[in-house]
User: What shape does this take?
Amino acid sequence: MPTGRGWKIGRILGIPIYLHSSWVFIFVLITFWLKESFAKLHSAWPLEQQWAVGVVASLLFFGSVLFHELSHSAVAKHYKIRVVSITLFLFGGLARIGREPYKASQEFNIAVAGPLASFFLCGFFFAIPQVFPGAEMVSTVSGALGWINLQLAVFNLVPGFPLDGGRMFRALIWHFTKDFSKATRIAGGSGKLVAYGLMLFGVTRAVRGDWTGGAWMLLIGWFLLDAARESVAQVDIQETLAGLRATDVMSHEVPVIPRDISLEEYGAEVLRTGRRCHIVITDDRLVGMMNVHTLNSVPREEWAHNSVQAAMIPREKILWATPDEPLLPLLQRLLAADINQMPVVSGSEENGAHIVGMVTRDSILRVMQTRSEIGTLSYGK
Ligand SMILES: [Zn+2]
Assistant: This one.
């Protein structure tokens, strides 16, 4: 998966379109490859013409990938699923949607839209030479794009998750078993199989002398393997954390510090006790939260002259958890806010809210670890 968004190149159907930095590499590679194959077909073309036609065909190729992703997105939007972004990167395109579809039929339709769009483009490009017979450059470029789109459609239909075919496969199993996790596991398994097959094929090609083609397949296989693993890992987490709440894993110990001590003194307290997060109080009233991360955001030489009060996270900016908050969304909130711990608060503002514990990323990860070691015995759903 591309990390980081890359350059935003525009907005289509309200969806921001990004170019990932790895896209440049594949653009150059594909332009070069197209130029080479045009040179073989039309050796009479001057070099500039070969390159120019190569660049045009390459741009149309990426236009085709974008069209494919937009088709997924249009169907997702039809189901009121937000499309966060479309990113073009090394292995093609990726449409990020806001949530998983609620129904198997929706997932199937979102997935099938991509290959259908590519088949449509394939027919479109193959038809162009019929409309403009005799235009050599036009028929060369459209012929190449017809083939490319055909390959895109067929490759994406391979039933290994996370390819479109794998998503359709998952939707079918989901529909018949009514079990999303099981469906993801099976489709993820077939995704791994496809990935290993592709890598094996890549190695065979490389051994036979086609180094670039072989390496490329190896790389795509690697990417698919990673994505298949990740999707299975996600449902594992969902299952492991199912039924667990903040109160199950929180520590009841809530370290407290007064607000008027200096950061120097706070640092000493952290070093002495090894506790990384404290609630800041004054006259038994909660005023904020202090932790090592916040401490480190103040330059070391200023610790002596600043109080905890000046550096702490003020009360209104603290993110809270309630004791019965399910762990999965809680973990997602911790990760999204990039924080390590959250105070757990019971009661409401009016009838005396009080902190009953602290829940940390570590405590959630620990329970996941333990549960996966003990296995299915412990699934308290
Ligand atoms: Zn697709």
Notes: Residues 376-381 have pLDDT under 50 and may be disordered. Residues 47-78 form the longest helix (32 residues).
